[in-house]
Task: inverse folding
């Protein structure tokens, strides 16, 4: 009996896993990677302290989105529409749509750079990527998209760990960078600081997280596991 309960509990935990993790992994996009590379090239490990601090507001904001989707069964856009009306919901959706468009421009520009660096034909590869992207979006099935994206997210984490081991970061310099005393006021540092904040916390993440939880029909009893997943994900990026 206990074994059956444990199996059912584990199965439920595996089913719950996905939305919070994917929204965090999706934040490791081309723009974030380029920002991180530029930060490291310019300031070494100094930005690590800032990134650790940013995990706190990131978790709080994403946890709120996860709670909304899990407990109410509503995505953020739908919840705003019900509570404040269609006009307010549309007004809130406009800046998200604009930032999403600009984000897509950055993403495809980054993919184009990657394709050229690999020496592959640009137009055919980008066309395949665009069609794949469109199929996933237009399928209107979150669960299918999740099943497809989870293995890719694990490969992404593995590649980041492998890169860290390959380049062998200096432990002493790494510890020194954890000091809260950073070159604030330096225009270059402040510019990259703002870029990192923008790369970590973005509006679309709230819509995605709450909407994904509601589409999976997570229950109040799943909230603890969902929050733990959010915490792990926020510290992973």
Result:
């Amino acid at each position: 009996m206990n074994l059956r309960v444990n199996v059912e509990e584990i199965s439920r935990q595996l089913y719950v896993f996905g939305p919070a993790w994917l929204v965090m992994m999706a934040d490791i996009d081309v723009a974030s990677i380029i920002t991180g590379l530029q930060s490291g090239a310019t300031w070494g490990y100094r930005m690590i302290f800032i990134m650790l601090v940013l995990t706190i507001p990131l978790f709080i904001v994403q946890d709120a989105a996860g709670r909304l989707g899990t407990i109410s069964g509503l995505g953020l856009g739908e919840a705003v529409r019900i509570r404040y009306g269609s006009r307010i919901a549309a007004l809130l959706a406009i800046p998200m749509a604009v930032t999403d468009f600009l984000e897509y421009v950055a993403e495809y520009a980054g993919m184009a750079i990657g394709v050229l660096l690999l020496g592959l034909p640009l137009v055919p590869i980008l066309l395949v990527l665009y069609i794949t992207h469109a199929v996933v979006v237009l399928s209107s099935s979150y669960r299918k998209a999740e099943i497809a994206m989870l293995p890719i997210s694990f490969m992404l984490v593995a590649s980041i760990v492998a890169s860290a081991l390959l380049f062998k970061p200096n432990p002493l310099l790494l510890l020194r960078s954890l000091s809260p005393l950073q070159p604030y006021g330096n225009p270059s540092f402040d510019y990259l600081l703002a870029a990192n904040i923008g790369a970590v916390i973005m509006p679309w993440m709230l819509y995605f997280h709450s909407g994904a939880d509601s589409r999976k029909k997570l229950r109040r009893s799943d909230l603890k596991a969902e929050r733990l997943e959010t915490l792990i994900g926020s510290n992973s990026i």
